Give the backbone structure.
Amino acid sequence: RTGIVQIPVVVHVVWNKEEEDISDAQIQSQIDVLNKDFRKSNSDISQVPSVWSNLTADLGIEFSLATKDPDGHPTSGITRTQTSVTSFTVDDKVKSKSSGGEDAWPADRYLNMWVCKLGGGLLGYAQFPGGPAETDGVVITYTGFGTTGTARPPFNEGRTATHEIGHWLDLYHIWGDELSFEDPCSRSDQVDDTPNQANENIGVPAFPHISCNNGPNGDMFMNYMDYVDDRCMVMFTQGQAVRVNACLEGSRSSFLT
Ligand code: ARG
Ligand code: ZN
Ligand code: CA
C-alpha cells in the first residue's frame, strides 16, 4: 500500500448522568492520540527496548471526525443521545436507539465509536472485521476516553481506543487468548514478530518479563495489544502492520480511496 488511509470517525456520546456527556475537547483529545499512535509519532515510543526498536511500525492510518453525515449534510462528527440506561455492557445495546443507545452510521464509510458508561470495570470492546454493519465499531467507557475531562488514570492516555481499533483492524491480543484450561503458550496472535507470550500483562511491568521460553527479551508487553496501563503501551509491530494492511485491502477496503 502507498499513501495514508483516512478514516472518518463518528463518535456517539450516549449519556445518562451529565458528566458522561463528555466535551468536544475530550473527544478531540482522543482523535489526537489515535493520529499519533497509528503514525508512530507518539513520543513515548522511546520506551521500546532497543532490542525491538527495528520492529516498531507506522500503520499509515489517520482519523478525523466526519464532516459529512450519511446524507451528505455538514456534521461535527459527534452525536449526543440522552438515555435512561445507567450502564452498558458487551451486549451491544448502546449501538441501537431502540435499546437506549444510538444507531451506527454506515460501517463501510465511518468508524463508529460509542462512548458511554460501561459496567464491571470494562474499559472498552470492539467488533472484528466481517461482522454485522449495524454493530460495527468500538465502544469505550467515558472514563477511559481521551486525555482530558472525565478520563481517569491509569487509563487517561487514550490507549483503550488505540487497542480497540487494533481489534477493529483484525489484530488479536498479543498473548493469544488461550482459554483457562489450555496450555497458555499454545495459541498465537497470528503475527510472526511478536514473541509467544503466556498471559496478558497488567499495570506497569518491568522489562524483561519472560514466559513461554521467550527469553532473554520476554513478552512484548509494551505493545498496544497487551493489557498494561496506558502509559506502558506504545507500539505496533511490522508484523501487525501486515495484518492491518490485509484487513484494509480485504474486508475494510471501502476505506481505501
Ligand atoms: N477490552 C480491554 C478491557 O476492557 C481494553 C484494555 C485496554 N487497556 C488499556 N490500558 N487501555 O479491559
Ligand atoms: Zn482487547
Ligand atoms: Ca499465550
In short: The CA atoms of residues 24 and 78 lie 8 Å apart. The first helix runs from residue 24 to 37. The radius of gyration is 18 Å.
